[in-house]
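Why show two proteins at once? Because comparison is the fastest way to build intuition. When a single record is shown, students tend to memorize it. When two are placed side by side, the eye starts asking what differs. So, the first record is below.
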Amino acid sequence: MTSLVLDSGGLSRLAESGRNRAQLAATLALAATWPPVVPTVVLAESLSGRPRTDAAVNRVLKWCAVVEEVSEPLARRAGVLRALAGRGSAVDALVVATAEPGGTVLTGDIDDLSALANHADNVTITRV
């Protein structure tokens, strides 16, 4: 089964209010990539601790499968991807490694994630 993984940009985009969010969520649900996966390291980039600004992200997280553990093999794989790509943050690399094999990452930062995905096992990067 192909997974859909959200980085902080993908999570923020889904958290935006309005009709586009609902349309995007419906499209993703029909594509059988639901629920999206969110590694907990993405929460560190997406949440501020301010209830007013975090409310929309928290609503989206209720739809998601939050991955609470970064295993040693996953962390090692992310390190390899970063070294091979020569760019991207540790969080970006963990997001791409989480999507392996055959998953899709929704992001606002296609440059770094695409560089990482070029060395990953069949990971697609999609801008939202």
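Second record. Ask yourself what differs from the first in the token line.
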Amino acid sequence: MKKNSVKNTRINGEVQRVLAEVIRGEIKDPRISPMTSVVDVEVAPDLKTCKVWISVLGGEEERKATYEGLKSATGFLKGRLAKTVNLRNTPDITFVMDQSIEYGVNMSHKIDEVIAADQSRPQGVAQDFGQES
């Protein structure tokens, strides 16, 4: 099976959906932040391993605690995955912290700050800028 085959893409999507549901609703570990998202999943073509990109909205402490909680729940997650998704092999799960959502929120705040600063600038300065006398 090729890495980008239709079958592999479907498997990735189904594994992502199941893991997101289980993390959101079934894991009771208090270390796992309620603001945890499964950003992406990549199951190896041989179905032996699976990388799961996780994003946690919050501070560094929350990220570390959520990561540790997910690592300790790997066996539970693998069992739920085996029961829900009918695969020849149930992949070993590896979590990777993804900061793309936090980066996007940070950039959005910076853009809002620039727009607010631009709107608070006097209109005469904006109109005269770029025009020669």
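One difference worth noting in the second protein: The radius of gyration is 22 Å.
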